[in-house]
Structure formats: structure tokens, C-alpha cells
Amino acid sequence: MRLFYFDMKPRPVTERQMIKRFCEDKAFVMLLHFTRLENLNGILREGLVCRKELEGRPLNRQPIFCDRWRNRWYNRANCLSISFPNDLMFCKYRKTFPKAKWAVLKIKSSVLWELDCAFCFKNAWSDEIRRTGRSNLRSLKSYESLRVLFGERSGKYPVHRQAEILAFNRIEFPEYIEWVYFRTREDREYWKTKHGDNLNVPATIAPTFFGFR
Fold it and tell me: Which residues on neighbouring strands pair with residue 79, listed in sequence order?
């Protein structure tokens, strides 16, 4: 007679599993990324690509950048907001480029536990986050760092309105990019006629994302 023994010891919970459970408890509905409308087709074809890789391309293959340069410690990452775009930064760029048209991408929250991410409770450009990123980037990738974004809040919005996620991977469509929001119907039609609409991406009008939270 053969006896079978089963190991009943509980398996340790990984950091990514903790992040996933936290996100599910928070009922995150989305991550968001705003971009110039001219960049949208390239993003849907190639995914969101980090600044360092884009700057290494010939000028005719580079997108339109909002900022002139990106700090070295996080130029390998894509910047994402939780539940609402970084309205302070978005407003600044829209004032800087008053004639530009914009789109907001909805990104699946699974990016947070499936990809290599850092969780910044403030804007990644702030002195505190930059110091931490340079000296101990691993700490920003921890479950605890994600939890700190929300403090004791029970809702889906971080404590600091410029809190952001740095994703150190390419974010592909349709695997992770699942929706596009436009400010007006005219902007959506402009994109369809000027840049083409052959990628079959779900899109809608959402002026709320182009204001303040």
C-alpha cells in the first residue's frame, strides 16, 4: 500500500500578490496616461515606449514630447496616473501648447502587478522621490510604497494629486491599453480623418478627464 503525503504548509505570499490584492480591495478601475493626439497611432502600434528608447530613434521617428528632457533615473519608465490624470501637469502642458489636441489612454490596472512598477506618492520629479529613486529604487517598487500612496484613505484616489506610477516596461495595445478618451467629438473625428482609425480601439468622449479633479 502506497501512502501519499501532502505538504499543507501555506505558501508565502509574494510582493506582486500583495499588490494585486490591495488593488482589488481598492477596486481600481483604471490607470491613465495623457498624450498629444499626434502620438496616438504610434502608441497603439508599438505600445507606450520609455523616453530613453524614443530619444535614441531618428528625429523623424520620435513622438512629440511634452517636456524637453527627462531625469536620468526614470527616463526608462512610462508615467501613469491612478483614477484621474495628473491634472496640474496636464493643465500646464495644455496652456503651453494651446493649439494642441490631446488624448487620454485608459490602462489596465493589472500593469501594477504584472509589470515592473515603482509607486511614487508624489510627482517623480520631486526632490524626495528623485533621491529615493537614485539610491533605493527597489523600495519604490514595494507593496508598502503602493500602500503609502493612499494613506488611510478608503477610496480610489491617492492622497497626493500628483502621485504616479512608473512602469519600466513597454505597455502594449491591446494587452494593457484598453480605451482612448477624447475631450470633444471634434477631436475624435479629427484623429479619425487626419491620423487614421484602423486599429479598432474603443474610444469615447470624456471631457471630465481634461479638467480638474
Answer: 166
